[in-house]
Amino acid sequence: MNDNGDILIIDDDEKLRALLTEYLEGYGFGVRTLPSGDGAVDVVRSAPPGLVILDVMMPGRNGLDVLRDIRGHSRVPVIMLTAKGEDTDRIVGLELGADDYLPKPFNPRELLARIKAVLRRLDAPAAEGQVPAQRPVPLLEAGGLTLNLARQVLLAQGAEVELSATEFRLLRVLMENPDTAMTRDELMTLAWDRDFSAYDRSIDVHISKLRSLLRSYPAHARRIRTVWGTGYLFVGAE
């Protein structure tokens, strides 16, 4: 089994579940599947997977409802499967906390690449309260904010702020390059390890989510700024 844990596939397509199970197990992943969103949150809470692959279009509770429920209890990475051309589903999914998306139909090799990209930056966090004495907690500090790289949480004005895997990766890139205007494709390449598409505005959705989180802390409400014609800048100078 892959060190990052098993993968939970939630999709009503029985053939697709079987195909992906065989394919991903061939690359060392443990795979569990569910034919619908019913009970998905209970499964995620009782036996947390390393990553969830979640179809949007399912009978009964659709994938967006399931994602909303999952995000109420867990920050597990989630890759959404969306109908080709359904931009609304993709954008809503990202706003709800999805880490990536893939339109159907897709090549299993591309899904595998997306899975690896999402997991690549997810070093297994230390168990609750168990940080090895010989290994100091890795911290990234910029602009008065501190990012705990082991636990993947943000420390702002004495409070801990939980981040999704995608929010963590994006904020890390910004904080590693303070006071530097970065284009969207630079951010996409560094945070997602894949090229940016001129028609893919998901980076703006993630920036909006980070700004909403920081708005709760007045000293950092304008920490991430838009550089018109370029992209975004993390203000590091106090």
TrEMBL record:
One of its GO terms (molecular function) is transcription cis-regulatory region binding. Gene3D superfamilies: 3.40.50.2300, 6.10.250.690, Winged helix-like DNA-binding domain superfamily/Winged helix DNA-binding domain. Keywords: DNA-binding, Phosphoprotein, Transcription, Transcription regulation, Two-component regulatory system. SUPFAM superfamilies: C-terminal effector domain of the bipartite response regulators (SSF46894), CheY-like (SSF52172). Residues 6-119 form the Response regulatory domain. Residues 137-236 form the OmpR/PhoB-type domain. CDD domains: REC_OmpR_CpxR, trans_reg_C. GO terms for cellular component: cytosol; protein-DNA complex. It comes from the Bacteria. GO terms for biological process: regulation of DNA-templated transcription. InterPro entries: CheY-like_superfamily, CpxR-like_REC, OmpR/PhoB-type_DNA-bd, Sig_transdc_resp-reg_C-effctor, Sig_transdc_resp-reg_receiver, WalR-like, WH-like_DNA-bd_sf. Residues 137-236 bind DNA. The keyword DNA-binding applies. The modification 4-aspartylphosphate is found at residue 55. PANTHER family: DNA-BINDING DUAL TRANSCRIPTIONAL REGULATOR OMPR, REGULATOR OF RPOS. This is Response regulator. It comes from Pseudodesulfovibrio alkaliphilus.
